[in-house]
Write a structure and sequence with these properties.
- By secondary structure, this protein is α+β, with helices and mostly antiparallel strands.
- It has four domains: about 1-130 and about 530-665, no CATH class; about 130-220 and about 455-510, GTPase Activation - p120GAP, domain 1, CATH 1.10.506; about 225-250 and about 295-430, Orthogonal Bundle (GTPase Activation - p120GAP, domain 1); about 675-780, no CATH class.
- The protein contains 31 helices and nine strands.
- The strands form three sheets. It has a four-stranded antiparallel sheet. The chain has a three-stranded antiparallel sheet with strand order 4-9-8.
- The longest helix has about 60 residues, at about 605-665.
- It is globular.
- About 35% of the residues are buried.
Length: about 775
Amino acid sequence: MAVAMLNAPSRASTSSSSSFLPMTRQNTMSSHDGRSVRASKRYSVTALYLSMSAKERDLEIEDDLARAQKILRDLKAKISSQSKKNFVLEKDVRYLDSRIALLVQNRMALEEQNEVANHLEDTTDLSEGFFPNDEKTQKYGNLLFLLQSEPRHIAHLCRLVTMAEIDQLLQTVMFTIYGNQYESREEHLLLTMFQSVLTHQFDNTPDYSSLLRANTPVSRMMTTYTRRGPGQSYLKVVLADRINSLIEIKDLDLEINPLKVYETMVAKIEADGGSLPTGLQKGVTAEQAAENENVQRIIAPRLEMLMEIANSFLDTIIQGLEETPYGIRWICKQIRSLSRRKYPDAHDQTICTLIGGFFFLRFINPAIVTPRSYMLIEQTPAENPKRTLTYVAKMLQNLANKPSYAKEPYMVKLQPFIERNKERINKFMLDLCEVQDFYETLEMDNYIALSKRDLELSISLNEVYATHALLEKHSVELGKDESSHLNVLLQELGPAPAQLPRKENRAINLPLYSKWETPLDDLTAALDITQEEVYFMEAKSTFVMIMRSLPTNSIVTRRPLRLDRVAEAAATTKNDSVMVRKGIRGLELLEQLQETGIIEKDDGFALLRDEVEQELVHLGSLKEKVIAETVKLEEVFRTIRDHNTYLVGQLETYKSYLHNVRGQSEGASSKRQQTQKVLGPYKFTHQQLEKEGVIQKSNVPENRRANIYFNITSPSPGTFVISLHYKGRNRGLLELDLKLDDLLEMQKENQEDLDLEYVQFNVSKVLLLLNKRFARKRGW
């Protein structure tokens, strides 16, 4: 009999019990064994039983698997938390990018500068605190539990909000209400919300061509979902190496736009000092450029190479099918299902174009076009590889869309790529949809949640109030039934409080529980489970816990197991009252199961014994999977954390720059005069700057680098002097004046190289270094 297990919610998983219920997301959600959860309910009852009997879950298991699982759980929690921080920072950087651009161009009024300054103040981490009063804590706890456990309310709200409101809502929904990105119940509830949103989208979009393609709150929501930890892990594993190997070839020019090729050809002839030959002139049309024989000769091999590169990307994506996160595959499955319902006569090719509208348009291609913002590369690619990546994304999108025309005429010549790959892309997108549903698992998880007393959200007061305000704003559409639970809770809460000033906002742990609880006695009936099944699973879990806690060289651990002797050994353990209780309970359960005729002593309790032994074998093999997943996610966490460092540095740089601009606007006050003093010089060795990534390329011979150092001075705010020195020489070898404006402008234009003749600096890393060294000393 095969072993099937169900993961208890991760908030309970810090107890020992969950360590032998380790079913991974892949096992829980995919169809590897082709059997539904309901078909194996006898085994999945373990999760229900353990959630209901918390007082029994007090046996600490400290074997290798338990330790490995704890490390993995902690890592997943860190990724979830860091993902939220990055989402908030990215939102702030997007806003400030446009505002700082105006500052650089001196086109922002003082009032707007103050607005930006206030926004920057709001970007720092919140201190922890509590709700203003216990009554509000309880009411908001009821409201957030309802929103989390009944996703239809959030789904409805997502359809009502404006584009201006969606980011704040997505922050709360994706990274707070369903913020535990690796916990089955929250993930399944979030996917249920997507199903509701997608169903409405299909039912209310008359034009097939705009389905899933228009820029709406729903499309923004789908894109944001792909940016969570599992999606980032997939992109890192499947695409990062392919993209990094491509961007290393900076000189490979694969431009196929005839007009651009023609203009480059003309510019090169002029740069070499030659005169334009007869028939070659400036100011030609795109059509004239395309007819030029030299242009055609240049483009022909480029087309072949582009198709080869795009094919290698497609190979990698198809081979990474099993790496694709379950949630993304499940959304593809819903798109297929809804497409067939709305267009019953549609061919698979038509359905696959809609799946491609999500998988490629919203997930894969943005990462290929802007790999740095997806944390797949460390620096913005040079112009040539950047253009190549754009072509690859266009080709993949055209392959997924299968259009009968090309927006750019010159893209028609890449049609052979589409013809050669259209069958296998269709198969791949249909294969994406082949995952098992989770509805019965979710049914159980929700009943479990009702029985728990430790559900909580880490959320800020302003997130709570902003969500309340949105619900209040759209309450007429959301709650047409005045007696609905949502209406009752909103009426009890009254008007939504205003957003708090930054200094008063707090991060809180909000306890969640239902105002309308299901009696625990009704759970077994609701899930169609008999008392005998509960006893069987309790016995199985008890004996697995005992076996994992006994010494491995104990005589009672030999196979085949003698369960009565195992229980007796535990019941007679010295100095371990918990083990004694487990042993006594094990003996009681053996007797109860014999009385009901489920197991028999004559065959050595074979049915229960075999399942316990199979479970232990499974747990032994699971340890390697847990360790492998941990290694993979550690890389993802490092990447997300490094991206956070970059974003924080970006915001700090903006603060520094804004301080300079506002100081100049206000004139030279006495305080201003004090901050005008010269700072530095600060000394940095070649090795130090190389290690920190500030030096990205050096022409200094290896044997002389130890004698090279740099001095950095700030004679006035926003102005810096970098000088290069050789030990033993009084004068510097060279000196470079820098303005903060210039560095910001270079960064905005994706110019990452700052040339100092002997070394090449990375602009972003230079900004981080200057900010770290000078900002606080200027009082920024």
